[in-house]
Amino acid sequence: MQDVPSDVESRILEEMRLCAIESHDEAWAEGRFAGIDVEILAETAIATALCALQDEAGEEAASDMLNRMRDRLTAGEFDSTARHH
């Protein structure tokens, strides 16, 4: 039987996700204001995240996350015209 997060746990995770989005959006805006190209910001953000995830959870976890992100990309989830937080 798989553990299902409680409502409280789900709300905590959602709040953490929203906080992370806000923090990332602020850092992204600062980088763009400083004139840093979008591709450079994106590559460094992804590389930083992968390093941290691999250090904490291992190479397989980082690879799994990349696969999930690729699936989401090909499904159109990151289309800026339809982006929802």
Automatic annotation (TrEMBL):
It comes from the Bacteria. This is Uncharacterized protein. The lineage of its organism: Bacteria, Pseudomonadati, Pseudomonadota, Alphaproteobacteria, Hyphomicrobiales.
